[in-house]
Write a structure and sequence with these properties.
The complex is a heterodimer of chains A (about 220) and B (about 700). Chain A contains 8 helices and no strands. Chain A is mostly helical. Chain A has one domain. Chain B has about 700 residues and is mainly alpha-helical. A two-stranded antiparallel sheet of chain B has the order 1-2. In chain B, helix 3 runs antiparallel to helix 19 and helix 4 packs antiparallel against helix 5. The longest helix of chain B is centred in the last third of the chain and has 37 residues. Classes of the chains: A mainly alpha (about 220), B mainly alpha (about 700). At the A-B interface, helix 4, helix 5 and helix 8 of A face helix 28 and helix 29 of B. Chain B: One of its GO terms (biological process) is ATP synthesis coupled electron transport. Chain B: It holds the Pfam family Proton_antipo_M.
């Protein structure tokens, strides 16, 4: 396989990444959000494997396998278990309606393409075109955290940001050192476990998983004092 | 240690103060505690006086203390300036310590006083002898914080806590500004030591920055209008001995800091003409505002506090004139202005200390600060009245007491203005001198009111009827500054000779030749043909004329006849028929009503018949315009912004996330703008070389890294 083919493949996968990010933003049913999240993890693993093939780096293969196991399977499964046990299937009315969110997302994407332009010019890596998309995905993940009301979707948004950062790392520097990557992977895993625990705690304390509920409670407490 | 220098004595004074602070650890009984604190403070004061006098006589020295941070030992040094202010501290602290022994007799909770009063003194001594910015700021803050606790000593009243808070706020503001000034000097010299700052050359812009920061910082601490907001609140609420020390010494420490940074560290060579004008304007406005507001107070201690503002103004007028004269290469005349300012500094320390001690005594025995409830105290407290009168005469600048000498010297300096050579300044300085003259006249009116309403006439309340004379300790504490007031008034030539080291240090000129030409008896600031003054001669003349007048009015053999005062036919005179504090100052209120904008309420009650007035009530309130027009809007604005910010803080997690999001977007946009600008700059070079755009070094090395791995 020559360089151009690898580059084209990575570009194609980047486009799919962007698609999943948009899909995450657009979905309202919890299960679908989770499916798209798992799909994103899968895409990430494939990208890592292809870049590994293209650059001939063995370490990237290992990180591709880790990504597949952790982000493609383990995290979605953990979250699925939480959703099933807590009986939250639908996101309630989001803060902004879908079409407006999509428009904002589009603007953000265009902005990141514009922003990355000068950097792409000076990079000679095979994966350089994916930088703009990775940046866009980070911002879309944040947008998701901002516009959703349920704590679970916010956590998924957070994990999507993490995925995008990983994607950016592969794209711009051919992957981070393995030690760092393993460390980050474990951090994410632990974070997901803690989030899971918190969901249960929040549910029992506030009777709801919506962040407004916690806020209202806090303000109420302040007023009492 | 064969020869003990001034610096060793000063350090011994600091150690005594520290011992006093620690005394509650050893001594349990309140009575012993009070005695030990007063004794140790008196020793501290005596040592400070000794260090000051030996320093002024030429025993200078410096040393590095094995204290402070590991890489930053404390440097201390005594020069003429430090010695003078040590003398000033000691001169009032000694009587105040004796006075405290009596004053604190009935205080229940003595521990805060015993801990913080010596700390306060330690801070002031430390500031004066410090020789690097770190030591200076450290002791400066010790002084500020300790005095906060002393202001709020009687913290059970909300009013006192509020005054303390404003004081703390302004003290911190002052500290911050002074720190900024030191930062500028540090940037120029690269060292925190004063010697390096002195030697470092300053560009005019940086010198101006350091000057403005120092001027505003020390101005806030000294209570210069319009930065005086804390002063009229903080001084009255503090206990009497503390007000005396705060007004008498602490404000002067701010003057010391001003001279130290602006005259010594920045240096007279770097003065710009408008610096002197600024200080002159600040001094004039303080003098006139201070005395006008003092005149309208009916709270005795508040009156004294405003009068302190006036006197700081007089000191600043002297300093401002000296700065102008120094700028226009007239060092000998500048030295005269400087000495006038310093002379007034020590004078104000003595008579304002005495006045506050007197006020403390009056408040102590009547239980109120309200002058409308006093009156006739001269019969019940004759000692206090006599000593208070001495201070009133001194502060009103009447010969033969000390206030006259320093104000007269300031006037003499102002009269030298034509020597400046600049037409505008020549016109402006007399204006300032006119302000000074007006302030002097109003100050006299103000203290006629203070003395007259408090001590003369008939008592206006039961509290005034049952007032009692103070004990011997307090009497002794007040006699010392009264005697010093007279001494400083009678021996100006010797005092100026003693101060001569300071102009020598700062301006490299000596005043002794011109002042001393006619011996110790006659003070001739410039030349005998222009002006001269001899206090002993004036005193003798006054005694002769006064004695003659007494003998003329009371010839021998005629007994003094006592009878009731002429009362216009009314059957009896009572205490409601005399001048009250507010009625005494009513004419002034009328004349200066544009400045005062008094809030008056006159209410007449007529019950049975329109012509039959049964009751008249008159209420007047004079506002401090600086507080109303400057402080209040700032406070309101800050509160409004804080409330807005608080509303932001009450939002949910998503808003915080949104803020983060916006920030990231903003920073990215900034980055891209910057990059496109850079690109445009690089474009011509790139086209001329017709090569691919330059690669970032980091990315290139990453590329080679993968090549090797491959």
């Amino acid at each position: 396989m020559n360089g151009t083919l690898v580059q084209q493949l990575v570009d194609g996968l980047a486009a799919l990444m962007l698609l999943t990010s948009f899909a995450l933003l657009a979905q309202h049913r919890m299960i679908s959000v989770l499916h798209w999240f798992a799909g994103q993890g899968l895409l990430l693993a494939v990208t890592a494997a292809i870049v590994a093939y293209g650059t001939g780096s063995d370490e990237l293969y290992i990180s591709a396998i880790m990504t597949l196991l952790l982000k493609g399977l383990l995290l979605p499964w953990l979250l699925w278990r939480v959703i099933r046990q807590l009986q939250v299937h639908r996101e309630v009315e989001p803060l902004l309606n879908s079409s407006l969110t999509m428009l904002i997302a589009l603007g953000v994407t265009l902005f990141s393409f514009h922003m990355i332009q000068p950097i792409e010019k000076i990079s000679q890596l095979i994966t350089r075109d994916s930088m703009a998309i990775a940046t866009a995905c980070v911002l879309l993940g944040m947008l998701m955290m901002i516009t959703r009301r349920k704590a679970i979707t916010q956590v998924i948004g957070f994990l999507a940001v993490e995925n995008s950062l990983f994607f950016a790392a592969i794209g711009s520097t051919n992957g981070m050192p393995l030690v760092v990557e393993i460390g980050i992977a474990f951090d994410v895993l632990i974070a997901a476990l803690i989030f899971g625990l918190f969901f249960f705690q929040i549910r029992t304390t506030f009777d709801s998983l919506e962040v407004e509920a916690m806020n209202a409670h806090l303000i109420h407490k302040d007023d009492d004092e | 240690m064969n020869n003990i220098g001034a610096i060793d004595i000063a350090l011994a004074a600091s150690v005594t103060a520290i011992l006093a602070t620690c005394s509650p650890l050893v001594v349990r009984r309140q009575q012993h505690l009070r005695a030990i604190m007063c004794l140790l403070l008196a020793i501290t004061a005596a040592l400070a006086v000794a260090a000051g006098i030996s320093g002024l006589l030429g025993s200078h020295g410096q040393t590095t203390l094995p204290l402070g941070l590991p890489w930053m030992p404390m440097h201390v040094r005594i020069d003429a300036l430090a010695a003078f202010f040590l003398l000033l501290i000691g001169a009032l602290l000694l009587p105040a310590a004796i006075y405290s022994q009596g004053y604190l007799r009935h205080v229940k909770q003595l521990i805060p006083m015993v801990v913080f009063l010596p700390l306060f003194v330690l801070g002031m001594i430390g500031v004066v002898i410090s020789d690097d910015a770190y030591t200076f700021m450290l002791f400066w803050e010790v002084m500020s914080l300790a005095s906060y606790f002393l202001v709020t000593f009687d913290h059970h009243q909300a009013e006192n806590r509020k005054a303390g808070f404003i004081y703390l706020l302004m003290a911190h503001l002052a500290g911050l500004l002074i720190l900024g000034s030191f930062a500028v000097l540090y940037a120029a010299s690269g060292s925190l030591e004063f010697q390096a700052m002195r030697d470092a050359p300053l560009s005019p812009v940086w010198a101006t920055g350091a000057f403005l920061l120092a001027a505003f910082g020390f101005g806030t601490k000294a209570g210069v209008v319009p930065l005086h907001g804390w002063l009229p609140d903080a001084h009255p609420v503090a206990p009497g001995n503390i007000s005396a020390l705060m007004s008498g010494i602490m404000l002067k420490i701010a003057i010391f800091g001003f001279i130290r940074i602006i005259w010594d560290l920045i240096g007279a060579g770097d003065f710009q003409w408008w610096w002197g004008v600024l200080i002159l304007a600040a001094g004039s406005s303080s003098a006139i505002t201070g005395v006008l507001l003092a005149l309208q107070q009916s709270d005795l201690k508040r009156l004294l506090a405003y009068s302190s503002i006036e006197n700081i103004g007089i000191i600043l007028i002297g300093l401002g004139l000296a700065m102008l004269l120094a700028r226009y290469d007239q060092p000998a005349m500048a030295a005269l202005g400087l000495v006038a300012a310093l002379y007034h500094t020590i004078n104000h320390t003595l008579f304002k200390g005495l006045l506050f001690m007197g006020a403390g005594a009056v408040v102590h025995s009547t239980g109120t600060r309200n002058m409308e409830a006093m009156g006739g105290l001269i019969h019940r407290m004759p000692w206090t009245a006599a000593l208070f009168l001495v201070a009133c005469v001194s502060i009103s600048a009447l010969p033969p007491f000390n206030g006259f000498v320093s104000e007269w010297l300031t006037f003499q300096t102002a009269l030298l203005a034509p020597q400046l050579g600049s037409a505008m300044l020549t016109a402006m300085v007399p204006f300032s001198a006119a302000m000074l003259a007006l302030a002097g006249a109003l100050a006299a009116a103000c203290f006629v009111k203070a003395f007259g309403v408090v001590f003369l006439g008939l008592p206006r309340s039961d509290m005034a009827i049952h007032a009692h004379e103070i004990d011997h300790w307090m009497k002794a504490g007040m006699i010392i500054p009264a005697l010093l007031c007279l001494l400083l008034g009678l021996l100006p030539v010797s005092i100026i000779e003693l101060l001569d080291g300071i102009p020598q240090l700062l301006l490299h000129v000596s005043l002794t030749e011109s002042v001393q030409t006619h011996g110790w008896l006659w003070l001739t600031p410039v030349h005998a043909s222009q002006a001269s003054y001899s206090a002993p001669v004036a005193l003798t003349g006054m005694l002769i004329i006064g004695g003659a007048a007494f003998l003329f009015l009371h010839p021998k053999g005629h007994a003094v006849r006592r009878s009731t005062a002429w009362s216009c036919g009314t059957p009896e005179t009572n205490n409601r028929m005399q001048y009250s504090a507010s009625s005494f100052s009513q004419p002034m209120r009328r004349i200066f009503s544009a400045i005062y904008q008094p809030e008056e309420q006159l209410h007449t009650e007529r019950r049975a018949h329109p012509l039959l007035t049964t009751r008249v009530s008159y209420l007047v309130h004079v506002h401090d315009l600086a507080v109303d027009k400057l402080y209040q809007p700032i406070a309101n604005y800050v509160l409004l912004q804080a409330k807005r910010l608080d509303r932001r803080h009450q939002q949910d997690i998503r808003s915080y996330l949104a803020y983060t999001f916006y920030t990231i977007l903003f920073l990215l946009a900034l980055l891209s703008v910057q990059q496109s600008a850079m690109e445009q700059r690089n474009q011509p070079a790139a086209t001329s070389q017709s090569q691919p755009p330059a690669t970032l070094p980091g990315l290139t090395s990453g590329q080679t890294g993968t090549e090797v791995r491959r």
